[in-house]
Amino acid sequence: MATATMSFNLVGAFRGLSLASSSTSSFMKGEVGSIHKTAVVSFPRKSPFPLTIESAHKKGAGSTKNGRDSKGQRLGVKIYGDQVAKPGAIIVRQRGTKFHPGKNVGLGKDHTIFSLIDGLVKFEKFGPDKKKVSVILNRTLLRLSNS
Question: Where are the membrane-spanning stretches (predicted)?
Fold first, then answer.
């Protein structure tokens, strides 16, 4: 980088000039007078190494992108096969229909499968890759509830 310093002496530039209307004025004659100009230009010495400026590659201490977590959705099977389910009991909470509703069960708007009657929960295969959930009325449960 070059650093240029220029000094200009204004007092010396106007020495000998007058603004009088006479024809003897040096300014009207076009005489400049004695203008002193001093110019000093200095260049820095070349360094043996090229000048490079690097930025930080990492954030400063104390900042992190971690530190948050979301709650679990509590999905999955709530009442397993051969267990007793009462009316309105949630059997499976799911996103989408991984399990399809069978007999005596209902399907909620969020695909929750729930029992419609008292009975035993049964999981069955439905087609080549689907599963069906049903609630079967159990005779022994009827006898116990009636007695």
Answer: none
